[in-house]
Amino acid sequence: MVHNEWAQPGEDEMVEPPPIDTTVAHSARMYDYWLGGMTNFAADRRLGAAVEELIPTIRTMAWENRRFLGRAVRHLIQAHGISQFLDVGTGIPTKGNTHEVAQLANPAARVLYVDNDPIVLAHANALLSSTAVGRTAYIHADLREPRSILDHPALRETLDLEQPVGLMLLGVLMLVADADEPWLHVAELLDALPPGSCVAVSHVTADFDPRAVGAVVNAEDEGRITLVPRTKAEVGRFLADWELLEPGIVPVMAWRPDGEPPADPQAAYYWAAVARKPF
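Predicted structure:
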């Protein structure tokens, strides 16, 4: 039997996704465009191409962020014995989703996906292809409302909060403005997890190329997309007082790379880190 679930508050059946405005560019669809996906529209491609003119390596950067997901999940399973994951800000399903990586390493792994994007909701079936002994579920909820995640019945049905959890916050915090207090919302999620849990964070930064990233912020602002680059110190605030795993907060390409270390780890403008909650 394959265990999977599409969960909505107070409902047992799949719901129709909210309307999607395809005339306005969207961050998740642009990311899909850079990854070579098919779930994007003309507005996404136009703005995505404009960003690519400002940062010609943007497609490589998107893939490096995706590769970090794989390395982080495998490390948490192999080195820390974590077998369940809470993936907040899931994004449009593509190659190497969290449950695919996790269940390849541990077929019994469980994954709860969370996103507030209607287009992710529309494609969530692709996230529910669990192994027979594992489990996957998806809920439509918002990082800015942590209780909508923590109080959702699917959380308790999918994850055991008495056992360590891997919280994945990859490429999502940069979409939350400072005015929306992202540090407080992340802290509420961290507080709900038991000792031995880990959090993986990747976050775009202007630390490596302020001019190029500043131009992208302006372009996306004109496209009505929130993009907040943050410094290494600001990214560190999301990790609270948890223990940083080696190698610490580093450029995403430098976090436990497969094979030889990259010649220029700052070529992808992301900070990345994994931290563990003390016992």
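Summary: Residues 8-15 have pLDDT under 50 and may be disordered.
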